[in-house]
Amino acid sequence: MPRKKAVLFASGAVFLVLFGLAAAFVYLAFAINKHIDLCDDPTSGRYIQDKDKRQEACSQWR
Q1: CA distance 13 to 16
Q2: DSSP code of 39?
Q3: In which element (H, E) is residue 27 found?
Q4: Do 36 and 62 form a contact (C-beta atoms < 8 A)?
Q5: 39: closest CA among 27, 29, 25, 54?
């Protein structure tokens, strides 16, 4: 019985680590997409047209 609990605990720990990595990956993907939309893609509706404002907003990403 203690072995079963250890396996369940280890499985839960692995699940939590993998879930955390997946969440971090999704967050990073959204952040990269936002940067591309605001700074690099003039066809995007969110693109900052004013050069000075775009440079100010996008300088934190580089």
Answers
A1: 5
A2: I
A3: helix 2-35
A4: no
A5: 54
Query: What's the DSSP call for residue 43?
Result: T
Question: pLDDT at residue 17 above 80?
Answer: yes
Question: Which pLDDT does position 2 carry in this prediction?
Answer: 81
Q: Which residue has the tokens 């993907």?
A: 29
d(CA 31, CA 38): 11
Q: What is the pLDDT of residues 36-47, one digit of tens each?
A: 999 999 999 999
What band does 1 get if pLDDT is binned at 50, 70 and 90? low
The Cβ of residue 35 has, within 10 Å, a number of other Cβ atoms equal to: 16
